[in-house]
Amino acid sequence: MGWSTHHPTGLIHYSPQHCYRGYTLSTNTRGSNYADLIDMEGRMCHRWHSDEGIGYAHLLPYGNLLIRTAPPTDAGGAEKIGGSSAAILELDWDGNVVWEYRNPMVHHDYERLPNGNTLVLLFENLSPEITARIKGGAPGDSDPESMFGDTVQEIAPDGSIVYEWKAWEHLDPEEDAICPLEDRVEWTHGNSLKITPEGDLIVSYRRISTVGIVDKASGNFRWKWGRGEISHPHHPTYLGNGNILLFDNGFHRPLGTYSRVVEVNPATSEIVWEYRGQPAISFYSQATSSAERLPNGNTLICEGTPGRIFEVTANREVVWEYINPFFTQGQPQASGAPGEYINSLFRSHRYGPEFSAFKGRDLDPARYANLNRLYARAR
């Protein structure tokens, strides 16, 4: 989407008869201490706060919020990588911490499992030997002797590790080469961690343009796809029909810059549905972003970089559109100058009014009347 100082923010389109009604949760990618729940009219209905920052959040069925905090002060260089966080926290409805997992190598994504354990995604230093074998990337004078790789761990409520999977043990340093336009600080840059109904892992690796399903028991890829088809993807999720929905960012796409959302059949690796902007460049996010299939068959899309959330029908009609009105200061520039003020989002999620987390909760937007008026005037 185009950028303009005169572009409206907040709710800019709503076709009630075609939407999946509910509440949308979003968080800014950087510099925010809040997670916001808005209704279909774009009004804030609930807000969570954390002094440690909130880089991403999603709701648990009993009403608590699982969040990823701001980056740590020092993680051996990992703190400078997008998606880095100091901890995973569970907040109750009022923002009190009821569970925490602190590890400066935590990044991007996590998943609460049915058994009460939590899957987490972690950076880990690769050996110099493995680093030397990895192909691709743009060599630089400051290339590290040891790149960062990605590890998945399952953490019990007491913080103990009950499962571990190391991505680099199941990837090929030559076949799974880094995009030639990226640096060599890290190999894969995992940015999503989900599960199938059988409990297998769904993973996404931005730098090697690959998504896949990993057999949790054996650690082997059951399905691995994307190279030459997608470019720097995010947020693959499992659909009820067995397909995988994902956000194809299109960053460094060789034949044109645009994003799209695609639904892929893992049995055939064929794309069976996709959404693009018209014209294609009107829909583009070089980083972050998400897509989730809603119960009525529509798709909720978060175009992360420009802070846009919108809902499309199966026929690709935009029926709800919202521009994040909350701006925060982004990452400092390489020159040392302060970061720009941005409204970028990591992901968004829509929850129906019957979602169990909302039972007995006050979601009256009148409680946030002052904030709602403030951002309505800013449009």
Care to count the β-strands? Answer: 27
Strand content: 35-45%
Can you tell me the overall shape? globular
* H and E string: EEEEEEEEEEHEEEEEEEEEEEEEEEEEH
Integer average pLDDT: 95
Strand order of the largest sheet: 1-24-23-22-21
Computed CA radius of gyration, to the nearest angstrom: 20 Å
Instruction: Please summarize the sheet with the most strands.
Output: 5 strands, antiparallel
Percent in helix: under 10%
Unreliably modeled segments: none
End-to-end span in angstroms? 17 Å
Q: Please work out how many helical segments DSSP would assign.
A: 2
**Structural class label:** mainly beta
Question: What does this molecule look like?
Answer:
4% of the residues lie in helices and 38% in strands. The radius of gyration is 20 Å and the shape is globular. It is built from two helices and 27 strands. It has helices at 128-133, 369-377, and strands spanning 10-14, 23-28, 34-38, 44-49, 56-59, 65-68, 87-91, 97-102, 106-112, 118-125, 148-155, 161-166, 190-195, 201-205, 210-214, 221-225, 234-238, 244-248, 260-265, 270-276, 290-293, 299-303, 308-312, 318-323, 328-329, 341-342, 345-351. The protein has a five-stranded antiparallel beta sheet, with no helix packed on it. A four-stranded antiparallel beta sheet has the order 4-3-2-27, with helices on one face. The chain has a four-stranded antiparallel beta sheet with strand order 5-6-7-8, with no helix packed on it.
